[in-house]
Structures are given as C-alpha cells and as structure tokens.
Amino acid sequence: MTNRVWFLSRPRVCETTMISSDGISPTSLHATKTFRYLTYHEISNTEPEYRYSVSLAKFAEHARCLRRLADVRHSESGSCPITFDDGHISQFDLALPVLKEFSIKAIFFVTAGWVGRREGYMSWKHVDEIARAGYEVQSHGWSHACLSRCSNRELDVELRRSKSELESHLGIRVSAISAPGGRWNQRVLLACHDAGYERLFISEPWATTKKQDGIEVLGRWMVTRTTDENEISAWLKGRGAPVALARMRNLATSAVKRAIGDRSYERVWRALARKNRSIESQYSGKETKT
Ligand SMILES: [Zn+2]
Predict the structure, then answer these.
(1) What's the pLDDT tens digit per position in 63-107?
(2) How far does residue 74's CA lie from ligand 1's centre (Å)?
(3) What is the CA(1)–ligand 1 centre distance, in A?
(4) How many A from CA of 145 to the centre of ligand 1?
(5) Which of 83, 87, 101, 116 is the most buried (most CB within 10 A)?
C-alpha cells in the first residue's frame, strides 16, 4: 500500500454556532471550514469494559473503513481524521502498527507531564518514535487539568510547560492542543493563543471549525467501545441515522449539563462510564518513577 497523503472530507463553510463547555459563545469567531475528526483514547487486546477503550479488532475495522473512504475521496489535502488523547501506551503498542499498515496519519495529543512518569502511558522514547515516524505530536496539557477551571497561573503551566517540554524533548514545533475533558471557554482560547497555539481541539462533535485571532477551534467525535464502522462512515460523511441519533444524545447531554451544572454532570458521567483502572489512574495522581 502506498504511503500517500490523504483526507476524508472537503472543507466547506458552515453557519452553525459553537458554544464553549461553559455555555459561552465566544465572540468574533468566524466559521472557516469543517474537517471531521475522531478521537480515540485506549485500544485493548480484549473486549474493553471502559467506555472509551476500543478493541484492537474494532480499531482495525475502523482503519479499513477510513482507508476505503480515503481511497474513494481523492484529495490534495493533508488533513487526517484520527486523533488520540492522553498518550496511553496502547496507542503505541496496538494502534500505531494498524495506522502504519493502512497508511493512515494521526495526531497524538500527549499529556506531557505523564510521559515517562505514569504507569500505562508512553515514555519519551515511545513519543519520539511516533514523531519520527511522521505522525503529528501535540499537547494535551501538562497534568490533564480541566483548562477552564485553572487559575491564570495554572493555565500558564498547562499550556506553556507542556508545549516547551514536548518541543525540547522531540525537536518539533507544537502548535495545537486538545482540551482535557473537552473543557474550554473564551479565557482558555485567548490563553492558548498567547501561548503560541494555533489550533484548539475540543470534544464537541458538532463544532464547526472557527477562527479567532489566528487560533482555530475544532470539534471532534469521541469514539467509544461500541462505535462501529457504519457510525464512523456516517460521521465522516456528516449524514445518516447514526449522526441524527448522536445529535439527539448530544442535545440531551447539553440540557442535563445546563440543568445540574458541569461539575455535577462530570460526577454522574464518571459513575456511569464504568471506568476501569486505566482511566481511574488519570485522576488518582499516582505516578511511577521512570
Ligand atoms: Zn484526556
């Protein structure tokens, strides 16, 4: 299989409004274009219990589907739809070989403070190998703190320290960040811009790419253990029953968030997501000395 640049959907202008996770609609945002992105967290050799872990067999199925869509939709663009958050070791051990097999590009958003320090997550050697293989490595903050809840000083660490550590360890330019927990607001947006980021990726699937003062905000679809290739295909094409159903679910979620508040919603979400030990460790503060 040739190792060519590929993409899935042509840019288009869209008029939808983007709302931050605080329910604020940032002013002066201009719709520019829409690429559709998918987000993976963990890949599992066995049938996963954690909602945001995808079995290796299913991930390979998705990759085959993406390859097929890319082969159908020839384009000159280098945009890729796959993103990974957190820097879990399974992204290196299990996902990377599949990406290589199908010649699929991806962006790896790494929690810089976890690299080489947290059990179950990648070392600098792993991340360096990913970068050297031609994949984009970008920031997922320093400690996975929700950016919208950080003080200005904390926000500075999350944005600037993660960027500088990734750049100095890997010798790359870091220009994008994905917001941990998808939490962001206009203060976060401006701080990202001031720290030198050009793109902020969020967890809102319906967000249309918007640009303000040189920084783009891009929505993503969170892939779960039950996501099948029909849903992947529908999402990337932007139509079909799975998309309509997901939009209804998303509207319901937003309504619950507004009704009970973001923090209460997060507590309920964590209880219902049946998180296994790998995601729990993200919040436990446990670190290993490696
Ligand atoms: Zn994360």
Answers:
(1) 998 888 876 554 444 457 899 999 999 999 999 999 999 989 999
(2) 32
(3) 32
(4) 9
(5) 87
Task: Please determine, for residue 29, whether its predicted confidence score (pLDDT) is greater than 80.
Answer: no
Residue 144 CA, ligand 1 centroid: distance in Å = 6
Residues 214-244 have pLDDT tens digits of 799 998 989 999 999 888 888 877 777 777 7
The letter for the amino acid at 63 is A
Assigned CATH topology for domain 30-282: TIM Barrel (3.20.20)
Contacts 24+ apart (CB under 8 A), 172-176: 172/131, 172/137, 174/137, 174/138, 174/139, 175/138, 175/199, 176/107, 176/109, 176/136, 176/138, 176/139, 176/200, 176/201
Q: Are strands 210-212 and 30-31 parallel, antiparallel or unpaired?
A: antiparallel
Question: How many A from CA of 54 to the centre of ligand 1?
Answer: 15
Contact 131, 102 (CB under 8 A): no
